[in-house]
# Entry
Amino acid sequence: MAKISFTSGSLRGTQVGDDEAYAGIDSTYNVLIGDAGGSILNHASGGNDTFVSGANATSIFFGDANGDITDFGVGGSDSFTGLGTATNSFYGDAGGRLSGHALGGNDSFSETSGGKAGAPLSSYFYGDAGGDITGFAIGGDDAFFGRAVFTNFVFAGDSGGDMSGHSRGGTDTFTIAVNFSTFSIFGDAAGSISQYATGGNDHFVSSGGDGTSTIYGDAGQDLRGHAVGGDDTFQGTGTFYGDVGGNISDNAAGGNDTASMLASRGLPVDAFYGDAGGSITNNGHGGNDSLTALIGGGGPPNTVFLFSFFGDAGGDLLQNASGGDDSFSAGGTIGSAVFFYGDAGGNLSGHTHGGNDNFLSIRASATFFGDAGGNMSDASMGGDDTFTASGSQDTATNMFFGDAAGQMSGNSKGGSDTFLGAQNTTNTFYGDAGLEMIGNSVGGADHFTGGIGSTNTAYGDALNMSGHAVGGNDILTGGDDASGLSAGSFNDTLVGDAQLLADRARGGNDTIVSGTGNDDMWGDAQLIIGKAQGGNDSFVFVAANGHDKIEDFGQTAGSQSGKDHIDVSGLGIGNFGQLAISAFNDTTHESIITFGLGNDVIVHSQHALTAQDFIFV
# Structure
């Protein structure tokens, strides 16, 4: 079939556009259209055209049609190159919409020009449609390359507007160098993706410094209806949104995105949002995202590099939303700071569920919010999250909030979270809530293990507990320290439930395990008031425990301090007669158990210790 040269009207039927080469004129205003001044309809197809902009010019190029591509129309595989100090707007296939069963071509875009300091240029590249993509239309697999100085770039992989119906984005590739330029990149749609539309599996590579790059894996605005984000990959520097810059709602789901990021040189502050920059609500779902980041290096002396990870949403999880199971690994120079929000930067409410997230920190100081950077309320549930600090982290400080940094209220429930400390760090741990647990909230069964040579403060559930809150059955283990501190000075403070238990709050049945340093051990709370009640706790000792103290040993079931036990089975002690216990002091309510030279524990109890207070081999 003979190909049709450019027509000012529309391509119809089975017409096919010719393959043409177009060049813009320097220092003027260029409007060039590859195949049709109107639309591409029926089963018509655009040709494979080549466009080169003029220098010092304003160029507007349409690869196939100035209007729409609809029915079963197909866009050609066109090539666009921006040259010189030009302002460019390139539309890969249609200036309008793709609809019906239209198919976008596999187009390529490249610009290596640039403006001047104080007078930046602007360039806009739309992979398939300047407008919306609807129906069953599919975007092409487009390639974008930008390496221009002092230029404001906007790249939209498929649509400059919205995607809806059952449309699908193409598998697009973006490669940029951020040298004194600003990039806004949308993997699929600059607007929103809704109904049953699906984002493509796009790939982004961002390098360089002294500029900004903001990259949206699927859409700049929202994911709605039953829309699904693509499984996108990100590499380099910038602020990355795995799926959308706005919200995910109404059964929409984020993709399973992967990122490898670098925060260094002139870009000391970067961020990654696994799914949504806004909130996830009304049965929206976050994807299972994975990120690896290298933080620090190459900046001015004493630069503090900051990195924020939001596993699912920068805002809230609302109604019946759920977070994904996300995995993050961050390595950094000393002085780097990492903030990790496992599910939401804000609050969890309604019947939301946090995901089971994993975070590895190497050297950098880290603040970990297992599920919410704010509060948890209603019937929300935290995920089972894990934080592992690796390597020697001299001067590093780690803060861990197992579920919420603020308050847990209503019938919210904490997950069963795990913290594994690194060497030479300062660690503060709240198993469930950093501020308080109130109402009928329930703590999870959390695990804390302090690092070697570290200073640790751990609260199994929250700073304060009141109302009818219930603590989880937590296991807190002190660090392995060889500090040689004298008796009465402590490496670790381990508190089974909270600093304060009030009202009718109840502590969990916790296990407090001594490390090799000096541990200040509390089974329940540092202060119990009202009708609050502690749990039945166990204090565990092994060899080389240091100089420890049990502050609240309970000896009566149902009492405010509960019925606790001292577990000496790990020391090979088989009966009460093998223990060296000092006389009980009626004034201080204290006695001293000596396990060996330099290893002992002071026990504050209601009355003198008996065999019933111990667990033997």
